[in-house]
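Tutorial, part two.
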Amino acid sequence: MDSGSLIMDMKGIGPKTNALFGKLGLRTVGDLLEYYPREYDRFQEPVSAAQARVMDFAAVKGMIVTNPSVKKVKTLQIVSMQIRDDNGDQMKVTWFNMPFLCKTMHPGMHYVFRGRIKGYGADRQMEQPQYFTLAQYESLVGSMQPIYGLTKGLTSKMISKAVRQALEQGVRLRDPLDVSVREAYGLMEKQEAVAGIHFPGKQEMFLEARKRLVFEEFYCFLLGVRQMKAQMASQENHFVITPKREVEELIQRLPYALTKAQRRTLQEIQADMTGPGVMNRLVQGDVGSGKTIVAFLALYQAALCGYQGVMMAPTEVLARQHYQSFCRLVEEQGLMLTIELLTGSMTASQKRKVYEKTASHQVDIVIGTHALIQENVHYQDLGLVITDEQHRFGVRQREALKNKGQLPHVLVMSATPIPRTLAIILYGDLDISVMDELPASRLPIKNCVVDINYRPNAYAFIQKQVEAGRQAYVICPMVEESEAMDAEDVVTYSRKLTGELPPSIRVAYLHGKLSNQEKDRIMEAFAANEIQVLVSTTVIEVGIDVPNATVIMIENAERFGLAQLHQLRGRVGRGAHQSYCILVNTSSSRESQKRLEILNHSNDGFFIASEDLKLRGPGEFFGVRQSGELAFKLGDVYTDAEILREASEAAKKTEAVDWAIPVSM
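Running the prediction step on this input gives:
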């Protein structure tokens, strides 16, 4: 067996299990070995009962002080008892349908109880905890058990068993790092790193394995960037897109004035498109800085010069939103522009009509998703390519779109405020424009950082906003409940919130495991105010514009990076009404409170990104992926800024070679 062998050929993997692995995109043994854990069940030192009461998940060392009691509620048998910690504080622990505990647990016995904390105020209690003798738990402290992204029917144990089998059979993965690179930067071999990331045992092994794999991701990515830069350096401008008076006239007719940053960015784009070489520019604009109108003006200018333009969005719902807003602007301003939408969910006949119009230049601007780069799509005089939310696309996808024309101008747009020093490394083949100014009409979002005791007040506030005609988001880190992870999940939370709010308020949930069609349906229902409260994972980070949404409540806020929290916060504050961001801190640590206070007191994405860069450290690795800036499997440009710099240094020293395929961009 080697890395190219099929998973279905492994011992114990039948057709049904193989199909489940296939749902995760895992078909070969190599795919399996490079499917890294998304989280670890980490056994930490026990906390006191008082500390546990302000957490959602904890381990508490305590002595049983009451006899277990059994209460029957319908089909449930609820076992409960009181425990007391070393400080004398008491806490209630309960189990469901485990009556045998009454015979094994007695007053005076000492255990470590580990589980989720639920309820409010003085009624908070630990539900369905694991329990360990003191010696058992002591032996587990510091250990890490892998938890993987799953699909229904597949468990973390099934994945880890298959991974272990592959490693034990000696399946090896190709190591793209030369010995000289590994030695220069103190990196382990890939095989050791892969074993270490799946089964680290202790934190030290995890950190070493992760560093090696993150370095590899950055290194291969940056080699790809260097190759692209070399290719672009000598490219001649075949599409001289000169400024047109109609563009300036449109700017004057807009119902709002462009900011200085928008004006400056548009001038930089215009200078590039009339210059001797091909434009390759990144527009970094903070959330709400008005990148979309700048993109439209650039596309309009290209159309006035007789060229076609395309704009590619990462999701169908976002592509449709751009299409609708562009069409509305064209109609309101009476512009002579033809715009078409092209997405994967359109029927074959709908796509065929767009293909015909595009090939014969009956359309000026095409807006869509990855459907824009399919083989059947042919353009005539494609002069400008814009990709929205660049970090969601791979280098190859960007290349495929660019290659649809005779070296068109490329404009990349990102709402991720990466500090300039890192942006220069990551986007080394692009010139950078920064839009760091918000339109004057934008009301600053009001922020607050609260603990879990504030939840009832937050629910009441959400209800009040909905009754006033507004809408709300609630963000949870997880899709489904897990005993091992101390975080809220969207499925359970949406059920809980439905019970907390009046029946007239419709609550729905959204997460990445849903099909694209289902995600789009839910987002469109939310945009139409058919759903008033949307409980979601970070899948809404790049989402539809809903100006009516005025509240975003982010659970387990300490588990996200500040830059990602800022991105999520940008889902609100898009309309005329005052908007609010409620950050629920479920940690008792001073560090997490300090971090969140930065977000509490600032709405400036670039300031927040730079602070995020200063504050990240190894302790951040154990939560949900901290940022969505680039689609690396493990790497995080904030936490791993130093590794990124080292990988950049190594890439500069390395000759470009055939195997240097970038991870993503």
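The chain has a mean pLDDT of 86. In part three we will examine how such features are distributed along the chain.
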